[in-house]
Known about the structure:
Elements: H1 2-21, E1 28-29, E2 33-36, E3 41-43, E4 52-57, H2 63-79, E5 86-90, H3 102-112, E6 118-120, H4 127-130, E7 134-135, E8 137-144, E9 147-154, H5 170-179, E10 194-195
Parallel strand pairs: 4-5, 5-6
Antiparallel strand pairs: 1-9, 2-3, 2-6, 4-8, 7-10, 8-9
Amino acid sequence: MRKAVLLFTMIMFAASLVFAQGYKVGDKAINFKLKNVDGKMIASQDFKDAKGLIIIFTCNTCPYAVKYEDRIIALDKKYKTKGFPVIAINPNDPEVQPDDTYEKMVKKAQEKQFTFPYLYDPGRKVSAVYGATKTPHVYLVSKKGNALTVEYIGAIDDNYKDASMVKKTYLEDAINALLEGKKPQPNYTKAIGCTVKKKS
Length: 200
């Protein structure tokens, strides 16, 4: 009996480690449903005609995330008509970062005139599964029916400070590759941003 309990404990521990690491390129991703800043529930399955989704974990407060706001709007405008809309998700716990409450998300979206859903993730139910550790942190997924496959993870580009100085457009290159029926190369870059704010 003790051996069985020990074995079960070891299996669960190993599973928790895998879960904690989040997704890797090639993994099947969960579908999700979260509250948008317009008060409506938005699900990944709602995008029936999409070829994929640009899922960006971002927030109100991180200086890196703020620098990327206009670029994220531009990405959505450019690619949603091609089948790759942006979905932004706030992974920060408002009890740790008070400026990331749902109410302040609504205000941010209105001020910046976001063209994409900006979803509230209470308890980090989605961001923890994906493995988001930074804001911003990108997960580009392809979509077939309701099945999501992770195709690219990482940064938007190579210069958060100044859009005019960007030399490598990692995310755009990955989307363009998928549109051409190819696999992104690179399919992984290091996400640069603030650490996700969560309870320790």
